[in-house]
Amino acid sequence: MVQGTASGVGKSWLVTAFCRLLHRRGHRVAPFKAQNMSNNAAVTANGGEVGRAQALQAEAAGVDVDERMNPVLLKPISDRRSDVVLMGQSRPDLANIPWMARRVRLWPEVTRALDSLRSDFDWIVIEGAGSPAEVNLTSSDIVNMAVARHAEAPVLLVADIDRGGAFASLVGTWTLLPPDDRARLRGFVLNRFRGDPGLLGDAPDIVRRLTGVEVLGVVPWVSARLPEEDAATIERVSTRSRGAVGVVRFPRIANFDDVLPLEEDSDVGIRWVESPSDLEGVRAIVLPGSRNVIDDLAWLRATGLDAAIERRAADAIPVLGICGGLQMLGRLVEDPFGIEGGGSHRGLGLLPVATCLGERKTVSRVRARWFTGDGRTAALPGYEIHHGRTVSEVEGFMWDVEDASRVLGFRQGAVSGTYVHGCLGDPAFRDEWLQRAGLGPRAAPREAADRHDRLDPIDLVADAVETSLDIDGLLS
Q: Is the pLDDT of residue 279 over 80?
């Protein structure tokens, strides 16, 4: 099990690496995280929702992600309310149970999922959440030491040395744990180190003398890009402040990894947008997904971004809305069932569509067909996660390959909207949309393209971990 001294220290990153390293050694391996809090979700083959990080870890393990790998997913709707997803399905009945009282309902599901995975795989690499030393949450724990005890799993504790305070965090976490849980800590790992390891001096020895736990390795900073688990880590994303594509950073942003293919394009780059001034000089705009479209629409108006986006759309700057972003681009968003607070709300009016949020959530993998700029059609893979139904006064430009009556995207002039997450990961779709902004297509030098194809980011991360830690020693 991999636990951390805090959120964002690289637990997901290390679990991904361990899954790939075990897979390389020929083991049947699966990831597991009992409870995730994230609006970045992936869709399973059964039409369930799990954390995006577990989908990436499953990919690293060479298996398809399933609901057992993340039995509980909390998707924040507001500061005090979350959608509770249990074994892939939204459970409104659980959302109304006080946080501290949910354990009775959730813990049996967590253990059942973990035990089932253990029966199907040789190895399970378990990820914790936040810190195991959150003493105010110990009695309701279903994701950290409670899981380690149930699985009888040895624990690696990870600290992010790049952010500072790593040694104090390791010792402080150890100090706050009860003796039985301290005994489960088999090693410390320092993550994201930049510079000369000699600068660490005798600090690892001091930590060992204080705790009896060895620092097993120092993992260097790796530039490989892996999708981030939650919006709290957006500030870590290495975006250029003057990127060509402005991406609106909603307070309830969801599945923001949709825009990573734009960031990875050295000719484009993204710029996170939180005020009208952030849009100065952008060549295109993306409104990504949102877990609370109604609140984020209100935020757009409060910041003045609504008018700023409308002005740029009037100047033929390409605007793309994905999922919740599509709904905001329309004329109306209605919420008769109170999914996001209720009421009828005016959208930006840039697309002639209207959305009604229904009680049933659409969660599915999909293959979409879309009209290209020259009138041809092309297909792309993706997934849907959204409430409600959108109707339009114009014909769609994207639809479900399996059911042509299911329109998945709308376009009017330079403004487009789609329900298909992952569309920007399709090179043809991405290049055509960028070309509308005068940013593509670009032909990369063949040598650079070949090198990029060979350097799988998961392999880069796994290689760094393998050279920094004694993997065979850990496995034994």
A: yes
